[in-house]
Amino acid sequence: MTENRTYTYLNPKVALMGAGCVKEIGKHAKDLGATKALIVSGKSKHGERLALDIYRILEDAGLEGTIFPGADPNPTDTSVMEGADIYRKEDCNIIIAVGGGSPMDCAKAIGIVVYNGGLINDYEGVGKVTKGIPPLITVNTTAGTASEMTSFTIITDTKRHIKMAIVDPRITPDIAVNDPELMVSMPPALTAATGMDALTHAVEAYVSTMATPTTDAAAIKSIELISKYLREAVAHGEDVRTRDMMAHAEYLAGIAFNNASLGYVHSMAHQLGGLYNLPHGVCNAILLPYVEAYNKKVVPERFADIARAMGEKVEGLSHEEAADRAIEAIRKLALDIGIPSGLKELGAKEEDLELLAEHAMQDVCRLTNPRELSKEDIIEIYRKAL
Questions:
Q1: Alpha-carbon distance 81 to 110, whole Å?
Q2: CA-to-CA distance for 330 and 295, rounded, in angstroms?
């Protein structure tokens, strides 16, 4: 942190947490003036079932809805424009997203186009959404992305094959819902990937150049909870209490990065997702220890704190030695929950590394990384992570 800086903290107006809380969304939708909702879900059968459950909750509250099961696993500009057309044709006046980060990002982007016009590609970057979005309720069914409560949306540009980061306080959802009963059906691999996504959010926010005592508190508590509960959530996903703890962990990580931003892990992961259509959480999990091995050299004391939060014994160690323990703890957690060992296993190619690095250097998430990285540094990190 530096002196003489002011801070703005962005969070949803309302956050609903705990088993069964999804049943309250009808009332909250009415409070927001809703009459008909566009319900955005993923393209899978599971996504459509979730959307139908939300439709019935709204119906019981006397509200109408139309389902758009069009969010790709990495939501695209084309699906956003399709959803915006449906919103207008169906005369909707609220958007409700249900699922993981993909439908929630898609929903935010649909809202941008509906209220601001043009193409979603026009809004890449920071602070370009001048007219806000329609009322938005986000029902989260994974414990990782925190898209249910952030001012970020990540959309794939299908022509350039890159992920666009769109960041604006005006797209922060009105109501964020984290009901652990909706998370018990997550398979182990998805639980692992989304949990490591949350850990990446917390770590990057804690070492961000925009970190504050408020974001630090959220990030460190998130790291503690993930270190304690993620292995259990992967092994015993039916345990509602464990799911609830992971929901709190990912929400705290969201508070941290929504206000302190991120770093080069996300800048680099976005490019992998855009070029190869890879799962975001897995890309983050693989890259995290490699990027932070670079970052720890400039803020070792911060990584010593992370080591403590992950349960490492660091008494008597220097900051540098404790920082090494943090990196190893991250690697061990990923290994324990079955994260792939390298990017090559996902299909990444050596010949694409320069292009990936060039695109990563344009991603807005890099701006708050604690260490300046050159293109050569980024290529080397990608190479190590292969």
A1: 7
A2: 14
Q: What is the DSSP string of 92-151?
A: --EEEEEESHHHHHHHHHHHHHHHH-S-GGGG-EES--SS--S-EEEEE-SSS--TTT-S
CATH, domain range 14-182: 3.40.50.1970
Q: Give the pLDDT mean for 332-355.
A: 96
Burial zone of 210 (CB within 10 Å; 0-12 exposed, 13-18 middle, 19+ buried): middle
Q: Where are the beta strands (DSSP E) in 247-330?
A: none
- Integer Cα distance of 107 and 102 in angstroms: 9
pLDDT band of residue 1 (cuts 50, 70, 90) is: very low
What stretch of H or E contains 335?
helix 319-336
CA atoms within 13 A on the CB side of 255: 19
The Cα 215–Cα 260 span in angstroms is: 7
Model pLDDT, residue 347: 93
Contacts of 274 (CB under 8 A, 6+ apart): 74, 156, 157, 160, 161, 162, 163, 359
Mean pLDDT across 143-152 = 94
**CATH 1.20.1090.10 residue spans of the chain:** 188-385
Element of type H or E holding 17: strand 14-17
pLDDT score of 37: 98
Measured CA to CA, the distance from residue 311 to residue 369 in angstroms comes to 25
CA–CA dist 108, 28 (Å, integer): 18
- Check residue 3 and give its pLDDT: 59
User: pLDDT-based confidence at 32, cuts 50/70/90?
Assistant: very high
pTM over cut 0.85: yes
Q: CA-to-CA distance for 65 and 61, rounded, in angstroms?
A: 11
Q: How confident is residue 102, by pLDDT bands cut at 50, 70 and 90?
A: very high
Best CATH choice for the domain 188-385 from the list 1.10.10.10, 2.60.40.10, 1.20.1090.10, 3.40.50.620: 1.20.1090.10
Query: What angle do the packed helices 264-276 and 353-360 form, to 10 degrees?
Result: 130
